[in-house]
User: Fold this.
Amino acid sequence: MGRQKQIEISLNEILSQYQQSFIAKVYQEENDDSDLLMEAFAMTPELKRENRQYWGRELGMCWQRVVTEVCSQTCSNFASGLRTGSDELCDLMVGEHAIDTKYRIGSGDSGTLKKFKAYARLLSEKGYEPVLLIVREDNLPAAIKACSSAGWRVLVGNESYDYIYDLTTFDLRKYLRAKAKAYAVKRY
Assistant:
């Protein structure tokens, strides 16, 4: 079995697990924007609005697992995220890249921003380039600016998919587009 097919099988398993989790959960807010992860689950903005915090958290974890899986299967210099004490500084590492994945950054509270600043500093001191890969493009501009100013290389939307492709040669954007509605979250 080729590497491409093996990656797709692993990603199919991750998306299927999340599909089952999403089906078991039924949950409101505004925003009619969609993204490739939402499209894989045929998730409407209306469904997501039923419980934005839940869906944001779960889609964020799905994004983390998908990116980690692609990198772990394609990058010989892949490593798990870096921890210091109970803090996880990043989700994964590929060579000198310390990568943290986010579905969306919507919080500009000082505690969150301090954490981003501290993590960027610690990663840089250890010789890594801190990289944030964010799915959504409707992020809080002040938070994005603060992360960039703190030393993170912030990539949003298509920039994230381009970065993953450049790093792995796996076209995650194309894969997710092909999976549109394949893992539909249906209400019964």
Q: What stands out?
A: Residues 84 and 122 are 9 Å apart (CA to CA). Residues 3-178 form a domain with the Trna Endonuclease; Chain: A, domain 1 fold (CATH 3.40.1350).
